[in-house]
UniProtKB/TrEMBL annotation:
It holds the Pfam family Glycos_transf_2. The keyword Nucleotide-binding does not apply. Keywords: Membrane, Transferase, Transmembrane, Transmembrane helix. GO terms for molecular function: transferase activity. This is Glycosyl transferase family 2. The keyword Nuclease does not apply. It comes from Geodermatophilus telluris.
Length: 337
């Protein structure tokens, strides 16, 4: 039986917890406490928390070590080289739980999250289970960005941003899996620095289906500025060509739309050098489309959101992803040479 300490279910040295919660963290001093607070109050299952400090320089490390010294359920690993897949693999190596649940360091999970994830996995039907990733923010600009991320008009087929009904999907955010299955697959591919979770899901889908359960809702702190949003989506896009090369069946029309948009805008700029009116008309068509889309999304804006930011957030996501995709194509070309 697990040992009881201060009201906690703490597995003894010879008893494995049911769940290992994995939290990769780097420079998350403003959110790590609320994240861990939401994890450590979970009930209904015995669990341990393995946090991998990925080279933090903002005080996150000190917070983690202090919390681990006071809570026997926590283990802090140090991985100084910034790499999410390497951090996940470090945590996988230390995991003792039957089930592995990833939680992002700038997210919050509700009470009962771990117990429900385990219950769904124990049905035996699913290779992995994940929930709805609901964007939240603190600033007016951030709330506008969160509004865009929660809109199906902006994120299209990425239904984990807005789903209200269970579905079988090709990718789950912050998934829950059988630990032994993750180990058999070799964990996360460290040669895939971006989109490592999507790439992993394509491999584990060969063992069974992935379930998106919207009752597993994750409150995810989004970027608070357009600049950071652009950088985030450029990073996402940059990782896609490598994943698509390894898993061609995972490439969908929604993935190639932003790269084609970038070509369209680049072509419009080139045409405008000799034919300003023609090039300007082509660019104007996109501006008008984004403005109309932003107006529709703004009808569901979060309270306190700066609605003027909404169209710009759409552009930052689309152009950032598209530019990143072409950077990723260049990365592949250099690898071949």
């Amino acid at each position: 039986m697990p040992e009881r300490r201060a009201g906690w279910d703490v597995p003894g040295p010879d008893v494995s917890p049911q769940v290992t919660v994995v939290v990769p963290a780097r420079n998350e001093v403003s959110t790590i406490d609320t994240c861990l607070d939401s994890v450590l109050v979970q009930e209904g299952v015995t669990f341990e928390v393995v946090v991998v400090d990925n080279g933090s320089t903002d005080g996150t490390t000190e917070k983690l070590l202090d919390r681990a010294a006071r809570d026997p359920r926590m283990t802090v690993l140090r991985h100084p080289t910034p790499s999410i897949p390497a951090s996940l693999n470090a945590a996988l190596g230390a995991a003792r739980g039957t089930w592995l649940v990833r939680v992002d360091a700038h997210s919050v999970i509700p009470q009962g999250y771990l117990a429900r994830a385990v219950a769904r996995l124990e049905e035996g039907r699913w290779a992995g289970v994940g929930g709805r990733k609901t964007a939240v923010a603190r600033t007016p600009a951030g709330r506008a960005i969160a509004t865009v991320l929660n809109s199906p008009l902006a994120v299209g087929g990425s239904s984990y941003h807005y789903a209200t009904a269970e579905a079988v999907v090709d990718h789950i955010p912050f998934g829950a899996y059988l630990t032994a299955a993750v180990r058999e697959l070799g964990g996360w591919d460290e040669d895939v620095p971006n989109n490592e979770d999507f790439e992993f899901d394509q491999r584990i889908r060969r063992r069974g289906e992935l379930l998106l359960d919207p009752d597993l809702e994750i409150a995810w702190n989004t970027r608070e500025s357009l600049r950071d949003l652009f950088r985030q989506y450029r990073r996402y896009g940059r990782g896609k060509p490598l994943v698509a090369r390894r898993h061609p069946e995972s490439l969908h029309p929604r993935h190639v739309a932003p790269p084609l948009l970038v070509l369209w805008l680049g072509g419009s700029a080139a045409v405008s050098l000799r034919h300003p009116r023609l090039g300007g008309a082509a660019a104007l068509a996109y501006v008008l489309a984004v403005s109309a889309l932003g107006a529709v999304i703004a009808r569901h804006a979060q309270p306190g959101a700066d609605r003027r930011v909404i169209p710009a957030a759409v552009v930052a996501m689309q152009v950032g992803w598209g530019l990143g995709f072409w950077q990723g194509v260049g990365d592949l070309a250099r690898r071949r040479r």
